[in-house]
Amino acid sequence: TRRPGQSPGGALMALRIRMGQYLPLNSRIHRLDPRAKLACALAVMVTVFFIQTPLQLALGLAFALAVVALSKVPLRQVAQSIRPLVVLLCVLGLFNLFYVGEGATLFSLGPVRVTSMGLWWAVCYPLRFTIAILMGALILLTTTPTQLTDAFEACLSPLSRVGLPGHELAMVFSLMLRFIPTIADEASAILDAQTARGGAVTEGSFAHRVRAIGPVLVALLASSAHHAEGLSRALDARGYEGGSGRTHWHPLRMRRADWLACAVCAAYVAPLLALGAA
Questions:
Q1: Burial class (CB in 10 A: 0-12, 13-18, 19+), 264
Q2: Buried b (16+ CB within 10 A) or exposed e, 220-234
Q3: Residue 13: predicted pLDDT
Q4: CA angle at residue 206 from 204 to 210, to 5 degrees?
Q5: What pLDDT sits at residue 1?
Q6: Tag placement on the chain: N or C end, fewer CB within 10 Å?
Q7: Which of 18, 9, 19 minimizes the C-alpha distance to 202?
Q8: Quick one: which of 248, 272, 278 has its CA closest to 50?
Q9: How many CB atoms are located within 10 Å of the residue 50 CB?
Q10: Mean pLDDT by groups of 10 residues along the chain of 278 residues
Q11: Adjacent-strand bridge partners of 113
């Protein structure tokens, strides 16, 4: 239902996933080299798969919250960016209550049995992946698309030596980031149009909603293909050529703060892995 005076599109805004958008703040995380941020974020994301104990989980959450505090990004905005994925992880984590049978029995009702290990993994599963999602959201919130592109190009530059298009792959990644807001606006406009025609995806039975999503996806794919074709023509008209010969206006340089951030990340990863091996 909609509030009085609310447009049909406003009722559908909840369907749009909030993507992390760059916030121009003056924090230590913002000032880091994007290569250092990517390396540290990737290391933290990989180590979440090694979290098995409550102490490891507490250490991971404390580190993630410390990074959020250093970034000066409002916690509410970070929570809005990751909320849809976290809710999905929590729902998936609940399945561990019924499918993990190890440990002491806490509750049983007929064939349904909830164990201590099932409860632990139902809590651990969403929380440890929330750490990885937090790192990804902070990368987007504290790094501009241009900086991300330069960092990916620098990381992929060794591929050019073996004949792979490192620069072109980085450019594709940059275009993907830049077109996320455009595609989101297109999706909102298509949903509004479908609602005006009586095909709202938020009303009716479940089968009706599933059928209503089909035309939306077809229109969104057609719009995306149209944007891609227009972009390719614009690049051809401007004589764009990729390759290692292109230079950067702001060359990337690792400074003392960047190496210190890498050292702090290593100081977090090492005890986390040691706690798992103990």
A1: middle
A2: beebeeeeeeeeeee
A3: 41
A4: 100
A5: 39
A6: N
A7: 9
A8: 272
A9: 15
A10: 41 44 86 91 92 92 93 87 86 82 75 80 90 90 84 77 74 76 80 75 70 81 86 82 65 89 94 83
A11: 108
